[in-house]
């Protein structure tokens, strides 16, 4: 047993710090005396040394050392050819025991991916012949291709993963997200479903995710619910998170929060999906709970985007936009594919008056999640904020035509129509259609109430809001009902409605202002009430920052540090 064997055994035992020190010393000896180790032994030393550096998270250094190992492998290949011509059975055995060159290339690509050098990673993996690519290489390539917008190449790589590993469910999700038909994907798993017992649920699972990525939220909900009810899959955390996310996409906040809470109770260390949960809780005004949630997730891991997004949502709804901007930037740095982080940063930029920068972030969110309507809503809000009604109308019409006439798309189109006096009647028709489909859809109720307020139809507005509040309790709806009641001189009940709104969201400034105004004015004049249903995806805030100038400068400096301007 020679010294290289000892290095190999320590590497296998996970003694990385020991491997790094010893391999460094041995490589220096080899450089000073090239005859000390054979080319094969030096190649091994370089790979083990690079592995130890990779373990220490020095990825640029590790990539360099892996590249040196590949150069040494070329030297080894030349000498092996010479030796094999002289009868090298021993040399063939030695070659088989050496670290895999393919694995070394994968490690280099992994370093580049972590360093966000995606083009370099693709170049390294593309250099591996197709027949020599392992499933993990194809999976990494597929993800890199998709991120780079090379959808056809991504589909090919995902399919190759499934050909080798037909139960690679993340590869299935990847294919479905790239608009590959569910039936085609299911056909690639049919053999394994038929030969392995208790996998009959898989075809239904594929159908559910096909509906999700097609934007058919209601059918996705029904399909996931049918899966979740099966005794063998009941209380599966991943299914519950997916169900919560689809409820959220469908605009059903109540059920979304309920399913997120259920998943969280089953797995207290759950991180996936908690950014959306935190956002919903912040939007509903439960800022103390959001703060607790963010702190708990930071204790689990600060290397995921989710806790940073949650803290950012807390700052956003506390109107500390500069801090929300920094936290969103940090989340994007950790995960550039985090849709919720992009939406958070876009919303903060919009409310700080940096509309053009916000548009860039909303567009990237749309690219990553083309079936999420909140991405489009954010972009439309930016267009409206910059008086781009034509662009907003074009986007709203495109969503309507692409995703069909459901309560959400009808409300989005109506929201844009409300901005133009010429299309007020069209807005009213669209909102009536939306409420006919979903009488409890809060955004449609809010927009219809705003329209009725403009027309001074207060009694009709009161009836609309009472009907909406019959089966739900929402801060904005209670506040708006209070505003309408003031308009008809029903001050006592208006005060009650403002109190309910503040109990749901103690930070709701508009409810507080309404209550204070009533206390100061014993006989308020009957005037048109200005109603506002702003939320994170809504028409935005006025952009005023709470907190000192020094705090804003501090967070702006940190944002620049993270390079996310």
UniProtKB/TrEMBL annotation:
Record GO cellular component, one term: anaphase-promoting complex
Acidic residues compositional bias, start-end: 529-549
Keyword Repeat: no
InterPro entries, per database record: TPR-like_helical_dom_sf, TPR_rpt
GO annotation terms (biological process): cell division; positive regulation of mitotic metaphase/anaphase transition; protein ubiquitination
TPR repeats, residue ranges: 237-270, 339-372, 475-508
SMART domains per UniProt: TPR
Keyword Glycoprotein: no
Gene3D superfamilies: Tetratricopeptide repeat domain
Region: Disordered, residue numbers: 514-565
Alphabetical keyword list: TPR repeat
Top-rank taxon: Eukaryota
Residue ranges, compositional bias (Basic and acidic residues): 514-523
Listed name of the protein: Anaphase promoting complex subunit 7
